[in-house]
């Protein structure tokens, strides 16, 4: 849609003023509008204090632990079958629903939101601000997942079947090859960033959007640095994986893959589609 064009139906001669307003409200958002909504979210994130980012990131890490736990709870009550993973994977969405809709600071969301201000301004100060944001949020997210994993070790809280399921899921998070984990993480980062791009248009379907996209991440067994950290941390704490496997076999390839998927495959491409409009708007403002 060209810049300055009307929303579909908003100027139809066959509609009265109230109906034209309704048509405008139901029209899809233009890419530039979506870009600016997300960029403004990124600007707000970059301006948050270290303390606020830490607390919100820690809360998100704890919340993401429920993806691990809920998937294990469902898996434990299902018979061993070829379709068990398809059903249990719905549990994986729970942590994302809490963190995303609860507006908690999740690292993989910021691979899109915080990068758009940098792509728009292209200055060193914004790059430094992104580095601060990413460092604080990532560490806080991971600490939250480790705390959650430690709580799962309390004896007698969960049945033996649930504990077995937790163990199986935890081992799967750390025992893949580096290259395989990297590619899986790239797809996961791609999908999560696309989810963030879609959410402004989702309106009342935000819950369904988060559920469906994260369900795809789960059934494909893709690697997410925060959700997977709860699983990998549990494997370390129960002695089925080492710290070396956590950092080298899980964290390093997953972090790199998530960043590549979110920044290169979503932020850069979607910014590129509206960069000309942004440039024209800046020139118009200067001329005015």
Structure description:
It is a single chain. The protein is mostly helical. 76% of the residues lie in helices and 0% in strands. It has 13 helices and no strands. The chain has helices at 17-26, 31-47, 50-76, 84-88, 93-101, 107-113, 115-121, 124-151, 160-174, 178-202, 206-219, 227-237, 243-287. Helix 3 packs across helix 9, helix 6 packs parallel to helix 13 (243-287) and helix 8 crosses helix 12 (227-237). It is globular and about 65 Å long. The model is unreliable at 1-5 (pLDDT under 50).
Continuous helix count: 13
- Can you tell me the overall shape? globular
The rounded distance between the terminal residues' Cα atoms is 24 Å
Oligomeric assembly: single chain
Low-confidence stretches: 1-5
The succession of helices and strands, N to C, reads HHHHHHHHHHHHH
State the helicity in percent bands.
over 70%
Notable characteristics:
about 290 residues, mainly alpha, globular
What is the topological layout?
Elements: H1 17-26, H2 31-47, H3 50-76, H4 84-88, H5 93-101, H6 107-113, H7 115-121, H8 124-151, H9 160-174, H10 178-202, H11 206-219, H12 227-237, H13 243-287
What is this entry, summarized?
Helix content is 76%, strand content 0%. The protein is built from 13 helices and no strands.
